Amino acid sequence: MIKRGKRPRDPRPARVEEIIEQLDADECDLDEGIRLHEDGQELLVEVREILDNGRGEVMELE
Prior knowledge:
- The protein is mainly alpha-helical.
- The protein has 2 helices and no strands.
- Helix 1 runs antiparallel to helix 2.
- The mean pLDDT is 76.
């Protein structure tokens, strides 16, 4: 019998929420805002790669 453990929790959704909360609450200065934007862009690239490899559809939303 093969035991299957729980998958490790993906930290990306929590990071996205953290970025959104900081930007929504105006809790950051310009430099921090730029860093948060860059972090968000990196997360977006990862999600696009996951969707593309899984043949999911990637859409641009504004």
